[in-house]
Amino acid sequence: MPPTHPVIQAIQDAMPPEGTEMYNFYENDVKTLEDVKEYLRTWFIRQPGGYSREWDGAHYTLVMGFRRGYWSHQVFVDTDTGLYIFTCDVEKELDIPPFVTGEFSSFEAVIDDIAAYYAKIIDIVLDPTDLNAIDLSSVNSVCRWSSNFRFFELSAGEEHYRLLAHVARSVRRPTIIDIGHFQGLSAAALSLATEKTVRSFDLISSLPSDPSVPTAIHIPNVRLEIGPNYMRDLPDHLRTSDLVILDIDHLGKSERDIFKVLEEAKFDGLLIVDDIHLNEHMQRFWDDIKQTNGNTKLPHASNLSK
Known about the structure:
Layout: H1 6-14, H2 33-43, E1 45-46, E2 52-55, E3 58-68, E4 71-78, E5 83-88, E6 99-103, H3 107-118, H4 128-131, H5 149-152, H6 161-170, E7 175-179, H7 185-190, E8 197-202, E9 222-226, H8 230-238, E10 241-246, H9 253-264, E11 270-273, H10 280-288
Parallel strand pairs: 7-8, 7-10, 8-9, 10-11
Antiparallel strand pairs: 1-3, 2-3, 3-4, 4-5, 5-6
Helix pairs in contact: 2-3
């Protein structure tokens, strides 16, 4: 019998032992991405050497999966390249991509990718208690100069910065796009995902004229671009991003222009829009979005949903 391919063997070795008690999706209170990950860890079963499918001329071998209700969940691996494809046969009215693709590095990395996908199709309500455990103090020094610093360390449910840090750590791709740098507080919170690059954009600078004042641009993984050219460069950055923060002038037109760029680039990640109920322009922009959207139950201090 030929030896199991190293990629498939690594998946099998990392999976919970056969006979592990399955996470009960209905009895447990599923609130966080970690809940979804635990569900996936225990429901996936090994299917090594299963049937193959072809995508773009490459042959992928089924290595794990399960069926539940209307959904069939399967992970295929191309053993030549180490790339994997996760397929989920969902009800047709759900306006979401039919599968997730990525480069296999570990079973947990695959679970992280799939859990982020699930976050788009099930109602995950983050628990403010969990978010309040996120420590923002390591970036306080670059925010103290800001007139809005008094909001930065407010608890989840009063302000959104801990939520941004949590989401930034949860997504998988290496670039986070922050449109509307202003005084850099959002960029600072996003930078707590230290393994990712935060690309922050604005038309004009609102930073101190004294370059010695510590600001978010002094954080090693933050890159700031000032000026109108960011619209030209945005499609390139979107290729390596699954998280965009949009917090600009709140007049609706610029938001629509940027959203059009995301649509044309076929961006399939998460878009967080600030102050969607601030005025009629923002409300109309939000209401006109046809893709799946929703409001978090963790607003910021002005009590406006994100």
